[in-house]
Please model this.
Amino acid sequence: MSVTLVDVRRLALALPEAVEGEAKQFGVGVMVKGKSKGFCWSWLERVDPKKGRVPDPDVLVVRVDAEHEKFALCKAEPDKFFTEDHYNGYAAVMVRLAAIDAEELAELLVDSWRLTAAKSLVAEYDAAH
Model:
């Protein structure tokens, strides 16, 4: 049932114009006007309050349509989805990869990509699928 960043990478990079980021943490974006806009990335967790955040490969951050959608997901399936104060006011939800299957993850990634990609690219994708 659970997925890993290997699965995330495979699913996310299969989307049109998706590119993997070059930062120390894992992330995938879509090219918009010559720049990569992230639609999923590994969560940076504050393990020690006196030190910087560190990537958690077991948790993925995914853009959602609106903050109320994030809260609805967290309320409906708290073992799978959560948020933190750092993301207050931001339409993104944290996903525990051990709690989600590849099919649901693929749906989340496509939805996140659609929110981030250029409208013309989304229209091309829709026409092909």
